[in-house]
Amino acid sequence: MRESAARSSRRYWRDRDVQHAAVVTLLAVLLSGGLVWLGYLIHVCRIAARSPSAPPRQMIALVFGQRLRNDAPEHDYRLRLGRVLALARQCQAGHILLLGGCSGGQQSEAAVGHAWLLQQGLPRELRVELEQESVDSLENLRHARGLLQAQGGGLLPPVALVTSRYHLARCLLLARRLGFSVLPVAAEPVLPLDRRYLGLLLIEATYLMWIDVGLRWAQLIGHRRMCARVS
């Protein structure tokens, strides 16, 4: 729901650890004359441009949701769903885990994504699970980890992260911090080169820098609580 998503955002900004990481990141950007941020932007763009659109073998596919509008998937989410549908039809995804709680409507992102896949002809016998409690990418991955560990006796199988190209670098960082062995799989066949997508890449570079610099600083000063936020 829109109100719950807004409350979640305010919750993060009131968090002292988040504020701490934001201040340290801002200082790093200012002291480097913006070079730190530029480095993260190059990294995000490189991952976005080079990631494959299919795994080399059949894998468990984790599909990231996106904020809904009127209980319907928008453009980027439909591309993610379309990609995993293609993987399923090519026998490259034998187990699909749809990630995402409620945002912008009464239904969860995962439930709406599943309904869309069924409408598009996803085989009903294919194994599909829904993770419907999370509100952001970190929670997506934490809950997915819990589900997969419960099924694997505590072990995590390799997974393919299916999401938009601009979103892949952040998801890879978080997944690896949480102990996943991951392969990025891009929703789009190639990196789009338009104004909207450039804006998304700029935003993702900022998010990635904020998370990574904050974690590195926490490790440097031995701030266990901050380090535990992504573990």
What is the fold's blueprint, element by element?
Blueprint: H1 2-14, H2 16-31, H3 35-50, E1 59-64, H4 75-89, E2 93-99, H5 109-119, E3 127-131, H6 137-151, E4 159-163, H7 168-177, E5 182-186, H8 195-221, H9 224-228
Description:
It is globular, with a radius of gyration of 18 Å. Mean pLDDT is 90; it is low at 1-9. The chain has helices at residues 2-14, 16-31, 35-50, 75-89, 109-119, 137-151, 168-177, 195-221, 224-228; strands spanning 59-64, 93-99, 127-131, 159-163, 182-186. The chain has two domains: 2-48 and 195-228, no CATH class; 53-186, HUPs (Rossmann fold, 3-Layer(aba) Sandwich). By secondary structure, it is α/β, with parallel strands linked by helices. It contains nine helices and five strands. 38% of the residues are buried. A five-stranded parallel β-sheet has the order 3-2-1-4-5, with helices on both faces.
Q: Biggest sheet, open or closed, and with what strands and sense?
A: 5 strands, parallel
* Helix-strand sequence: HHHEHEHEHEHEHH
Strand order of the largest sheet: 3-2-1-4-5
Estimate percent helicity. 55-70%
